[in-house]
Amino acid sequence: MTGNELGKAKHLMEQGGESSRKLGYVSQDRISELPEALLLHILSLIPTKNVIATSALSKRWRSLWKMVSRLEFESYGNIYKYSENVTKSLLSHKAPILESLHLALTSDHIDGVYVGVLATVAFARNVREFVLDLRVYHGPPVRLPISLFCFDTLETLKLKNQVLLDVHSPVSMKSLRTLHLQGVVYKGDESVRNLFASCPYLEHLVVHRGPFSDNVVDFTIEAPSLKTFSLNDSSSAGENRRYVIKAPSLKYLEIVSLICHEFILIENASELVEATIRNVEQIGNENILGYVKSVKRLSLDFLALQITCPTEVIYSQLVYLEMYTHKLEWWTLLTLMLDSSPKLQVLKLIDHCLHQRSLEFKKQYKEQGTWNQPKDVPECLLSHLETFVWRNCNWGREEEKEVATYILRNASQLKKATFSTDPIEPKRLYKLATRKRMRNELDDVVRASSSCHLVFEFE
Question: What torsion do the CA atoms of 55, 57, 58, 64 make, to the nearest 10 degrees?
Fold first, then answer.
């Protein structure tokens, strides 16, 4: 709701209230006096079943719901009754364009015929965003006829859970810009290739693959217009999966889970500006950091011991680096990144509470190798680093203090260094003395930058 709309609504309500008071009574239905466009906007923000129920309020409201451009239908159980109700509602709908339709159904078994009928009726209403969420407890995944998507108005498609994509040949989805595939099942490698060949102007892609087999080994994404891509693969059978990403226009990449996979290849990512890589372990090829060498912003969280970092890569555009410090040998990766990022301006380290980690991890954490300082002070510390942040720092090892001290002593352009710690629980009040000592030690460090402001925070 815009400021102008709110102003008009307030003005109308004040006018209605004033005229009612002059007549000696107070109106009980001021909202009906609002402009139709404003009422439709309000209705688009509430559950569709409640929107349809407003038709019983008065003559003014009887057909108003039929013009709402965003509809959402959710049901548990009877697919026949659900299909009947949704079809009836869609056939009664009068808006020239259906901006968004969300269909969610949870059942023991879902007949794909009913889903196909619903999708056909929806696309006949010129739907722009279509969301289908099917949760089948016992039956097979529901096959969705890909021919249903050959409509020029479809701009966003989001498929979730037990949806089976069987794309035996490319179709036409030239208007599609956003595609979300979350937990869906694919017929095979060819279906994946045909799917992306069907949407040549795709710009935003989200792929979440669950811990079950979906019949795809080589997941090939060829999308010349793709700008953002998010990948999350939590499969337990990951060692048989390979990814090939051909997206020359890609600007943002997010990989949040990729474990025990045989191979990942990202071709020609020279336009990449920002990347997030987390929980990536035991990948067959070791050049994953080499694919993101053009980025300006980078967030890393993975086990350095299991990823070989390409020492020859220079991150010539990188100005913002965020790293998580709760994985083993994280400082080895930090040293490499500092040496390889000559223009780095912001360094942010993020830790997790040490007392929340497992006993096995704590043992490994204390026994891992020592930190080796760079032979020469990295160029970024001498010329560019202005901001240093360390969140949730607990410093369970001496090496962590050494890293902080090293940066303060060598970052000659540093303007601000912020250290934040977790709140101390009553049973761990003994940590107060440790933290006070830590603060005093940092205060005593002779900083390379005379203008560096040291800040301590409690989160």
Answer: -30
User: Is the whole model's pTM more than 0.85, yes or no?
Assistant: no
Residue 356 token pair = 């929340």
Shortest CA distance to 345 belongs to which of 314, 382, 387, 390?
Answer: 387
Q: What is the Cα–Cα distance from 459 to 450, expressed in whole angstroms?
A: 27
Indicate the pLDDT class of residue 377, thresholds 50, 70 and 90: very high
Task: Show which of 68, 96, 129 is a domain's final residue.
Answer: 68
Domain contains 312: no
Instruction: For residue 113, give the DSSP letter.
Output: H
- For 96-129, what is each residue's pLDDT tens digit? 888 889 899 888 888 888 888 888 888 887 889 9
Task: Count up the domains in the chain and report the number.
Answer: 2
Q: Is residue 435 part of a domain?
A: yes
Amino acid at 350: I
Beta strand pairing call for 274-278 and 453-458: unpaired
Q: Does residue 431 sit within a domain?
A: yes
> Whole domain around residue 451: which residue ranges?
317-459
Beta strand extents in 226-385 (DSSP E only) = 228-233, 242-246, 252-259, 263-267, 274-278, 280-281, 297-301, 320-324, 346-350
Residue pair 229/254 in contact (Cβ under 8 Å)? The answer is yes
